Amino acid sequence: MLPVIALVGRPNVGKSTLFNRLTRTRDALVADFPGLTRDRKYGQASYEDYEFILVDTGGIDGSEQGIESEMAEQSLLAIEEADIVMFLVDARAGLTASDIGIADHLRKQQKKVFVVANKIDGIDADSNCAEFYQLALGEVYQIAAAHGRGITSLLDTALQPVIAEYAEAYREANPEEFEDDLVDSLYDDENEGEEVDGERPDKPVKLAIIGRPNVGKSTLTNRILGEERVIVYDMPGTTRDSVYIPMTRNEKEYVLIDTAGVRKRKKVSDVVEKFSVIKTLKAIEDANVVLLVIDAREGISDQDLSLLGYTLNAGRSLVIAVNKWDGLDTDVKDRIKSELDRRLGFIDFARIHFISALHGTGVGHLFESVDEAYESATKRISTAMLRRIMDMAQADHQPPLVRGRRVKLKYAHAGGYNPPIIVIHGNQVKDLPDSYKRYMMNYYRKALKVMGTPIKIEFREGD
Ligand code: GDP
Ligand code: GDP
Q: What is the pTM of this model?
């Protein structure tokens, strides 16, 4: 489970600049799917071996207590759900009343807070930052997000120890989840050209059921579990955690990650749910396969596309269920199908199912695609095969010339699974145009018959 870090601060202090800088690398996969709206408020980032979820909380200015605006509410919810808060202030503007308001709010939350003074470029940083100690939130870290200054040191000295502590605590609480070494070692195949021996340990497939509120996630979960029951689980106190439900189907084991469960419980006591993007993000990160539920009657919303973006960003396998397919006229069905084609046509690897969670129609078939997606995502592919496909792709369509020299791809091997990562070494690969990278990806997808999962290709300079 990943720690959540929220970027907090008044507008214009540089939150999105820092956000972009920290999440940049992870956006690569989404960039391969033109047509997808990229939500810039939530992102995965990594630093050395540590991954975390980063949330840009948008414009809070410290006076929100009592304000009902949805945006402020989402920001406050994000702070509540975060493990760590990076509180940005503007070193040029100096300390403001809003900063003090935000600091008061943060102090009440009892979170780990780091004060980060941004925009120290071209000013006397020490003397400009001194007044931020009045916030009484400890050390003031100096950065210039726009220029990348101070960020490594912020990550090293402030974040790294806390994230490591978080990871360690989680590891201790969930030792069984860290027996993956065998699986990973299978992919370090030094033995070029050899099929790698060894069985993949049979582990339950973690299936996250995600989607906007009211699309039918709970109804579907109940249907899958085969019981019409109100889901009442004993949950740890937080709103941001999903319910994990082990189940067996056709003698295969699964764990359903139910992102709707907590809300259902709350409904009983009539508490209005706030849709937690963080909860969904964590479920996606923790899953092997994501089942995205869309409401046929609502069409495809931007929020659906954002959820899709997060799923791709995390490299997860994907199955799409268009729910509430019951009782629709043929012409309505046709209209919905053409809208799906138009807006989701670019994710050609994901199977789409039309189902009725209410009546159970089509629900059983979902698992065929879930199994297929998981198998595609974890399939072991030999170095020889990857290399052969690379050679074929190059023979069919040569990489372009760059400054008079042809880009040359020399060697390929597997770099991981779920999603499958293919590492390609070559000359001048940094100059490869995106169109050629996409060509390679599609070539591999067809050759390997991979369905249900994105593929990631990493290009590396040299042999
Ligand atoms: P947000 O509203 O907090 O997300 O702030 P933005 O990231 O949009 O940044 C607001 C403005 O500050 C933009 O014009 C940025 O270019 C500028 N900015 C961000 N970081 C720095 C920095 O390190 N130095 C300077 N001089 N300007 C910066
Ligand atoms: P969640 O918020 O995503 O968990 O959605 P729920 O499972 O609570 O469903 C929201 C509403 O949609 C409820 O009134 C359900 O009865 C209804 N619903 C769910 N699935 C279907 C379906 O397949 N067909 C129809 N017609 N209604 C459905």
A: 0.78
